[in-house]
## 1
Amino acid sequence: MTALSYEQAYEQLCQWTKTDSLLKHARAVEVVMRRAAGRYGGDEADELTWAITGLLHDADYEQWPEEHPKRVVDWLRQRGEEEIAYAVACHQTKWGLEPKSPLDRSLLACDELAGFVIACCLVRPDGVASLAPKSVKKKLKDKAFAAKVDRQIIHDGVELLGVDLGEHIQLVIDALRPHAEELGISGSGT
C-alpha cells in the first residue's frame, strides 16, 4: 500500500510533463492499471498503488528521455515507494530487470497496449465505442500502423501475465471506454 497520495503523484507528473499527449497517456495507463489491479493483482492488490504506478511510469520521459525512468524511480525511492519504483524500473526493458510481481508484469502488459489501443481509436469514426479485440489484433499485425509501438513488449507482457491476448485487449478497451471523452478517443462521429 502506498503512502503517496494520488494528488502528490499527479502534481509531480504535471511538474515534469507538459504535453497533452503524454499527460493523456499517463492517465490512460492509470485507468488501465486500476482495472488490471482487480483482474491480475488478486485480493491483496491496492488499486491506488496500481493507479499511481500507471500515472507516473513515464513522468520523467519528456524532460529526460535519455535517462528515463531514472528520475522518477529515484523520486519514488526517496519517498519509500519501492514497490512502485521497481515496477516503473521494470517497464524500461533495456534495464533488463526481472518483473517479479503482478504489478511489474501488468505495467509491462498495459503500457504499450494502452497506447496502441488509443492509436486504434483515433482512426475510427466512433473511436473506442465499438472497438473490439479483433480489430486491435489486426492492427498489431500491420507494422506500419503505430510503428513506434513495440509489439514484442505487448506480446511478452501478455505472456508474463499468462493471459489470452484477446482477453487482455478487452480489459484495456473496457478500462478506457468510460474515459473516452477525457482521453480524446470518442471518435469524430460523436
## 2
Amino acid sequence: MRVLGLDYGSKTVGVALSDALGLTAQPFETIVRKDENKLRQTLARIETIIREQEVDRIVLGLPKNMNSTMGDRAEKTLEFQAMLERRTGLKVILWDERLTTVAAERVLQESGVRRENRKEYIDQIAASFILQGYLDSGAYNTGVEG
C-alpha cells in the first residue's frame, strides 16, 4: 500500500506518492482547476489515483502561519480534509507544510528549470516534501500519527 501526499492550493493540488514500502516520496502530478470552489473533478481525480495506486492513507499539507496560527488558507485546508475523508473513507493526516513551497522553488531553480516552467512542477514537488516529512517521521511504519 502507498501513501498519497497532497499540497492543496487555491487553484492546484500537488500530488505525490510513496513507494510501496513507505520509505520515499516521489512527485506524481498537479491537478489544476479553474475555480477555487469547484472541487468535484479534483476529488474525482484523487479518488482515481487512490484506487489505481492502492493508497491506504493521505497526508495533507497544513499551511500554518510562521507563528503557528491558522489563517484563511489553513481553514480551507481543514474543509478539504473533511471532504476527502467523506469521499474516500481514508484517514487524512495533516502535516505542517511551512516553507515546502520555498524549498520546492529552490530545488527547481538549482536544477536549472526555467522560471516559466517551474509552475508546472512546484506543487507536486512541495507535495513530495510534505509526504517525505511524514514518512521520515516514522509515523507510517509505526502506526503513530503526526
## 3
Amino acid sequence: MRTAVHVVLILCLICVSVQAQSNVDFGIKGGLNFTFFKVEASGFGFTQDTASGYYGGAFLDFEIDEDYALQPELLFISLKDFKFLNVPVYLKYEVANKLHLLVGPSINYFFDFFSNKLKIRADLSSSYNVTSRIDIHVKYAIGFEELTPNSLFLGVGFRI
C-alpha cells in the first residue's frame, strides 16, 4: 500500500510542476470496468465469465503537435476482491474533430497477489471531447497472461 501512496504523491508533484506549461493538460477520470475471464466448465471447455468494477485516477496530456499527444495515466481499479493500479502510457492521435484514438502499453500492479504482482497489457482506447473540459472514453485492455484478463472500460474524464 505504501508503494501506491508514493506513486500517487509523485504523480501529484509532476502534475503541479507541469501545469504551468501551456501544452500540458491535467485531469481526473473514472467509470466502470467489465473484465472477461476464461473459466473451465466441467470438462466442456472454456466459457466466459464477466465481473464488473470501478476505476478512478488522474491523467496528463502532453501535446506533441496539433494532432498527437502523449497521455500517461494512473488509475486505481477495484474488481470484486482484486484491487490494483493501472499505469497506461498512450500515444494519442486526433482522428477527427474532437475524436481521439489512443494506443499503448499498460502496467498493472496487483495488491492482492504474493507473487507476480506486475502484469503488462496492451490498451486500445478512444475518447470524444464533449466540451473543452469533459470527455467520454472507452478502452479495451488485452491481457497477455491468464491472470491479466481482457477488460472493457467506460468512463468520463474532466480536465482541470
## 4
Amino acid sequence: MVLKAIVGAAASVALLAISASACAPAPLRPLEERILVADAAGRPRDLRAELGTAPVMVVTFFSAHCPCQAAHDARLVSLYATYHPRGVAFVAIDAEITATPARDAEEARRRGYPFPLWTSANGSAASAFGAEAATHTVVIDREGRVRYAGGIDSDHTQLTEEAQAYLKDALDDVLAGRETRTPRGKVLGCALTR
C-alpha cells in the first residue's frame, strides 16, 4: 500500500513537471532566423529586414473572429498613434490557417488599422514567437531581441482604465533604454486556428 502511494505520488510529480515544462514560455531570444510573412499584395516580407532603422517593432498576432482582438483594436490604434511618431513600427500578423492576404487587407481596412496586417497562414511566424492566441504581442528591439512577449494588457473583452498596460510599459522601458519591468504578460485572446 505504501509502495503504491509512493509510485502514485512520483507519477503525479512527473506529470506535473511535464505539464509545467509544456506550458513554460519560450525563452526571450534574439530574432535570428528569417521569418517570412506575406503583405497585402501577397509579396513576401522578412520581419528581421523590416526592423530597418526603427528602434522598436511591435508584432501583434491577429484573429478575425476573436472578441478579445476586437476589443483591443482601438487600444492598438491608440498605441500606434502615440508611439509611431517616436519611430516604433507596428505590424499585425494573421497566423491562422484560413488567413489570406486579400482577406487580411480587407480586415485591416474595415478595422481602421493604420499599420499593416500581414499573413502567415503556415503558422511559421506564430511558431517563431511562441504565439498560441490572438493579441499575443512581442516587442523587438533594433538588435532583434524580444524585449516583451504577452498580451497587450491585462483586459480581456471589457477594457478598463485599471488594466496593467503591459505593451505600453514595455515600449516606454525600451525607448528609455531600460530593462522591461514586465518581460512577460498573460495573453487572453482566442486560440489561433493553426
